[in-house]
Amino acid sequence: MARVALDHLSVRFGQVAAVDDISIAFEQGEFIVLLGPSGCGKTTTLRCIAGLEQPTSGKIFFDQDEVSHLPPRARQVAMVFQFVSLYPHLRVRDNIAFPLRARGEGRAEIERKIAWMSKIFDLGDILHRRPGTLPPGARQKAALARAVVREPRVLLLDEPLSAIDEQFREEMRWELRHLQKELGMTTVHVTHDQREAMSLADRVVLMRAGRIVQAGTPRELFDDPVDEFAAHFIGSPSVNLIDASFSEDGVALGEAGVPIRLPERHLEALRRSGLRRGRIGIRPHSLRPAGRDDHAAVPVERPIAYAVGRERFLDFELSGQTWRGVLPADAGDSLPERMQLDPARIFYFTPEGVRLPVA
Amino acid sequence: MRQAIPAGRTAAHAVPRAISDRTICGLFMAPALAILLLMVAYPFISLLYYSTLNFSILNPAKGSEFIGLQNYTRLLSRESVWERFVFTGQFVLATVVVQFCVGVAVAYAFQRNFKGRDLLFTIAMLPMMLCPIVVGFLWRYMFNSEWGVVNYLVTLLGFGKIDWLGVPGNALWAVVIADAWMWTPFVILLATAAFRGIPTDINEAAEIDGASPFFRFTRVTLPMSMPILLIAFLLRLIDAFKQSDLFFAMTGGGPGSDTETVAFRLGKIAFSHFYTGQASAFAVIMLVIIIGLSLIFVRLLTQQGRQD
Amino acid sequence: MTVLRLSGLSKSFGAKQALRQVDLSLEEGEVLALLGPTGAGKTTTLRCIAGLEKPDRGSVHLDNRDVTATSPRERDVAVVFEGFNLLPTLSVFDNIAFPLRSPVYRRPEDEVRREVVQAAATLRIGHLLDRRIEQLSGGEKQRVAIARALVRRPRVYLLDEPLSALDLKLRESLQGEIKAMYQATGATVIYASHDYPSAAAIATRMALIEGGRILQCATIGEIIADPRHASVGRLVGSPSMAQFPAQGTGQGVEIDGLPMRLPGPGEAGGRLLVGIWPEDIELTTRPTDGYAEGRVWATDFRGRDKAIEVRVGSQRFRKVVELDLQAQQGDPIWFRLPPGRVFHFDAATGERIDHGPTRRAA
């Protein structure tokens, strides 16, 4: 189990910088998720750690050892790929034994480790089957066992859940989370699914265009995004966003210029910034029916309410855009005329999308 | 809300009943079936028919006397026929083994990226495109014991000249070399396709798993390309079994008839002696052997499919 | 007015019984979700309605006309499959226009253009009309497929997992568009899915299907107040209903491996399942009288809250909790099932045994 450090890592493909000067360290036993849209450099970063891609510049350390230019087989890493990388011609047990045989471990040792994996991953029934006959979830579980069996210094997961049917993906997420904590293995996981990232990670590294946008606990990313991209990328249902104009009189939303009363503290911060325009964001769960007080409230037009389980959502129009808020479970059938933004959870962005601190 | 629907659209059931799907299906298949019957079934049935006659196309007027299975019994009781089968078997085994050892190795080498790979690959494919008779004569000149290039190389290495085509044992190997030269490209082609069909993920996974290149080749690459290699093997086996052109060009079946393959002998019976009936029976025997071989491989292939 | 009625629909493929006595009816303008796991019979049901499959028994009525024996062309329905079934050689425009140019539904070309442009606008693909299909992303293709169904204005839309191939963000926005579409046109829709949240967001009523059988067909509130079958509980909710194998004692019910005795209908020795919606399970992080001890097996951060899975022996359940609840993986936790909130199901058949508490719909 190693601490992994990336030091000014860059990878260029011709003119394109797939990874652009990244420096970050992953602690021992930490579950790290590299998150971002396709082409953000997350997979390239992972492949660099595996040794499947050569960095153009920068260094990679496992603990004190620099591994930047070692071939994959000398790095003692394990990797699970998006599309199942089990050897289709081998039974599950021989798949698990493969990395052990590749480095010439003894027969008894191999037997012992297969038994160990079978217990942890609950593989009993499928040990003697071939990958092709297994459902995708079981296949990925076997692939994980093969990765973990030789106790690698780092476990690398390249979108291992995305090829799995959605019904089983959630189950696999629970399993993966449980097992990673159980094994205490330093894990770097790549995904474009923010839900998966939030669920699994100790720390999420959100990437865009080869750079790190924000790194932090899922809760930090959710509650305290550094910019509009982070705010929008994380969270489901998505954050509500709208253009706003800031003036001496206050704040007006959207093209229609819907006025909103905001805390004096916020207005003060906006004035100090000197911005005339920007954007305001609020997560649906911080948008609830307003009481008598119309502080930080917006009018509700063309509302549509619907329930998901006991949770009830309200979609409504605000200056031509659809916003989503939540309704308390015990509210009757009458729909609110105004919805209130939780002042502590309003995000302000500059027109360039940078978050404006107001606290 | 239904006002946008023009009148008459709900009267969809007015559509006339069409010809049933089955009929259409049959109609589409009919031309292909007819051609297949004409090109395959008719010759095959007439072959079976001729094989039971005492008949020669040189003398059709003599008629066709039905003699039952006598053509078969006569052929199979002749020692010289059995010798041809043994010789052919030796040839097939030798040439297919050589083709596969060389072909798979070369295909593996082509997996690497190096400069001029595509050009080299194209050149390596050329022998396959040549006409067998031309290849035969080419190698016949190269194996000429007096002025052939092969013996020139042999003497350079300090050995005496070898009579390549005059001694049956040597002639077998000479033709094996020529045949392998011509058909190894086919094995290279299929093996390359098989290797390329293995997902990159799998190879990268093996590399990360700490496997050396040799370990990877024997434990991953080879087993995973087995289905395609098996098909290539079957095709080469059947083709080698039917080989006669190279022998015709290089040895003429000699010395004596010691280097005649089964197909060569069949040609002789049919078109030198013009024993048409007997030749038909011989062809049927060859066909049975080839079908038998194919069945073994089909069995192997489906077994493999079932395991996965 | 009843637009669609299925009665006693049965269908088998060889030995596999795909549908068993399916009864359903759909009112004008209704959106019905057909919710069930893969292989439950959702697709077969839709195919029978569309006429792509002929039922062994039972009948399909469209607008009170028996269409069981008619061909797909003669039924005024449109299907959007999980795959895209678009024609790759044609432009987006021609794909959407395709049904309007087919012999059965042919219309004048200027009308075709107007309809196509309108449908494209509803689904926000107006700017893509000249592109070819292969230049589109997955989400765009799915929109085109829906627009193609939309443009014909059929009596019934059949949507077969139209969103499951898409990622979450895209699914969310398309959900909105599908909803906008049927609210704008008053269309009648059957939406087949295995995903409870998306089905709940779109549908007015839900039919739960498993093993080719309709287990329950009701509004979400009715289902939560009165689930008719153990499988209904497993299909509904996020996380779904917690279920504990248990045994009747004559006086009540004992949950296997837990020191928990609940009032219940079980006769002595009878096997049953005790079900409870996770929201009704009471949790505490301190040892408390009347609570059973379990261990947090794993946690799942969900943004505004988190879910935890609790395990005790072979029993387990998942529940959404406040972010601030001190419950890390491996921590002990205490829980209680309030008696008035549980449902009892027959362990063998899954059928509800009692009628439980009648609760206010959520």
Would you give an account of this structure?
The complex is a heterotrimer of chains A (359), B (308) and C (362). Chain A is α+β, with helices and mostly antiparallel strands and 359 residues long. Helix content of chain A is 26%, strand content 33%. Chain A contains nine helices and 21 strands. Chain A is elongated. Helix content of chain B is 70%, strand content 1%. Chain B has helices at residues 21-50, 70-76, 79-110, 117-129, 132-142, 149-156, 168-196, 200-208, 213-224, 226-241, 245-250, 262-271, 276-307; strands at 53-54, 65-66. A two-stranded antiparallel sheet of chain B has the order 1-2. Chain B is flat. Chain C is built from eight helices and 20 strands. In chain C, the strands form four sheets. A six-stranded mixed beta sheet of chain C has the order 6-7-8-3-9-10, with helices on both faces. A five-stranded antiparallel beta sheet of chain C has the order 13-12-11-14-20. Chain C has a five-stranded antiparallel beta sheet with strand order 15-19-16-17-18, with no helix packed on it. In chain C, helix 2 (92-101) packs across helix 3 (109-122), helix 2 (92-101) packs parallel to helix 4 (138-150) and helix 4 (138-150) runs parallel beside helix 5 (168-185). Chains A and C meet through helix 5, helix 6, helix 7 and strand 17 of A and helix 5, helix 6, helix 7 and strand 16 of C.
What are the key terms here?
heterotrimer; A: 359 residues; alpha+beta; Rossmann fold; OB fold (Dihydrolipoamide Acetyltransferase, E2P); 2 domains; 6-stranded mixed beta sheet; 5-stranded antiparallel beta sheet; elongated; B: 308 residues; mainly alpha; MetI-like fold; two-stranded antiparallel sheet; 13 helices; 2 strands; 70% helix
SSE order and pairing:
The complex is a heterotrimer of chains A (359), B (308) and C (362).
Chain A (H helix, E strand, L loop, with lengths): L3 E10 L2 E11 L4 E5 L6 H9 L6 E6 L2 E2 L10 E4 L11 H11 L4 H15 L14 H13 L5 E5 L7 H18 L3 E5 L2 H7 L2 E6 L2 E6 L1 H6 L4 H6 L6 E8 L2 E4 L4 E3 L3 H10 L3 E6 L4 E3 L7 E3 L1 E8 L2 E8 L2 E7 L10 E4 L5 E3 L10
Parallel strand pairs in A: 3-8, 3-9, 6-7, 7-8
Antiparallel strand pairs in A: 1-2, 1-4, 4-5, 9-10, 11-12, 11-14, 12-13, 14-21, 15-20, 16-20, 17-18, 18-19
Chain B lengths: L20 H30 L2 E2 L10 E2 L3 H7 L2 H32 L6 H13 L2 H11 L6 H8 L11 H29 L3 H9 L4 H12 L1 H16 L3 H6 L11 H10 L4 H32 L1
Helix pairs in contact in B: 3-7, 3-10, 4-7, 5-7, 7-10, 8-9, 10-13, 12-13
Chain C lengths: L1 E12 L2 E12 L3 E5 L6 H9 L6 E6 L2 E2 L10 E4 L11 H10 L7 H14 L15 H13 L5 E5 L7 H18 L2 E6 L2 H7 L2 E6 L2 E6 L1 H6 L4 H6 L6 E7 L3 E4 L5 E3 L7 E6 L5 E3 L7 E10 L4 E7 L2 E7 L10 E5 L6 E4 L16
Parallel strand pairs in C: 3-8, 3-9, 6-7, 7-8
Antiparallel strand pairs in C: 1-2, 1-4, 4-5, 9-10, 11-12, 11-14, 12-13, 14-20, 15-19, 16-17, 16-19, 17-18
Helix pairs in contact in C: 2-3, 2-4, 3-4, 4-5
